[in-house]
Amino acid sequence: MVLTSRGAATRRRIVTGAAALFRERGVAQVSLDDIRAATATSKSQLFHYFPGGRSELLLAVAEHEAEQVLADQQPLLGDLTDWRKWQAWRERIIKIYDEQRAGCPLSALTAHLSQADPAAAQKIVIRMNERWQAHLATGVRALSDSGEIDPATDPDQTAATIMTAIVGGATLLQATDSMTYLELALTQALNSLRR
């Protein structure tokens, strides 16, 4: 569907409004009527932009949340060229998750998987993870090239380990409301990078 700038803005308003409601209340607790009310959208507008109904909207929100996970880390994620910048990025990650707690886009994205088309939602998560891992691997290569870490360090494997620390820590944050797991896992993953 080709949208005018006004149409694109309306669609974006619906998606961001739905995302906020899903984070606040949980996916299962939000109806299309709730989304319409929160975004000042008519039923005809909602189905114009999302003719597939709730499942299509959920996929659009999942795309939005995936983008948000990466956007929240920028510009630091795109410039992991020395150890000082890695430490600043680590602090940014801790701050993001500490502020977001139950409203984190990563957790919201995971919640959408069971409610939307699973195959399509999985592709969204895979694309996000690939992009995230690519940024981290580029940063690991920069550290290796500058001699700050062992040149034999595998960038892709290391990036996957760091991502796993974040995702695991974020999952435990959701379950326990404790930042300890995320802080320890991410610190350990980065400390092992420098050994």
From TrEMBL:
Q: Where is the HTH tetR-type domain?
A: 8-68
* Name of a matching Pfam family: TetR_N
Which PROSITE patterns does the UniProt entry name for this protein?
A: HTH_TETR_2
MF annotations from Gene Ontology:
DNA binding
Q: Which SUPFAM superfamilies match?
A: Homeodomain-like (SSF46689), Tetracyclin repressor-like, C-terminal domain (SSF48498)
Q: Does the keyword Transcription regulation apply?
A: yes
* Keywords recorded for this protein, A-Z: DNA-binding, Transcription, Transcription regulation
DNA-binding region location: 31-50
| Cited PANTHER family | HTH-TYPE TRANSCRIPTIONAL REGULATOR YJDC, TRANSCRIPTIONAL REGULATORY PROTEIN
Instruction: Specify the protein name.
Output: TetR/AcrR family transcriptional regulator
Lineage of producing organism:
Bacteria, Bacillati, Actinomycetota, Actinomycetes, Streptosporangiales
